[in-house]
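Obj: model holo form, ligand = FE2/S2 (inorganic) cluster.
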Amino acid sequence: MTTVSNQQNEEPSRPSEPIQDIRVLEGRRSFFLWLVAIGSATMGALLSIPLVRYALYPVFAKTTSAPWSKLGNKNQYASISAPVRKTIDIEQVNGWMKSVSRKPVYVTKGNRKGSLEGTEVLSAVCPHLGCDVPWNADAKKFMCPCHGSVFAPDGSLVQGPAQRGMDTLPIKTEEDVLMVRYQYFQALLPNKKLVG
Ligand code: FES
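Output (holo structure tokens):
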């Protein structure tokens, strides 16, 4: 009887080698998962670079400068006796934004800086505070309705408060077509200064 009782209390002996094998396998599996995680993170970071660049592009992109706009054959302005008002459409890209704006300019006669063979193209923006300056055919002057600045037919300053004449724009001719590149200038300055 005693012999039977001792046999029931004894713990069944287990071999220790399988436990060690399981620990080794778990260690290998953890290392493998760790490698997969590192690899996935690296791949994710590499793949996200183009997306990040795309997302940040508008932050660093600059507004494109205005393209050259056609004003027609230069010969039609050869004998003008007064400034001719024209409207040009300007397409510009700012980051993801594309915009088209209409801008008035004047083709006139003059030899100020920026002229080409006695022709100038003026921005219609008053250099005082930016009002649209109309040509007054009776007075034969540009007369700003906002604060009374007056400009000669070639855009030079006659009377303030503007501190400079109307701004000339870059012009060129291509196969006898007069072309202008629209620009923006800072107001309230005695000398022309490009914006942007
Ligand atoms: S905006 Fe032209 S005079 Fe002030």
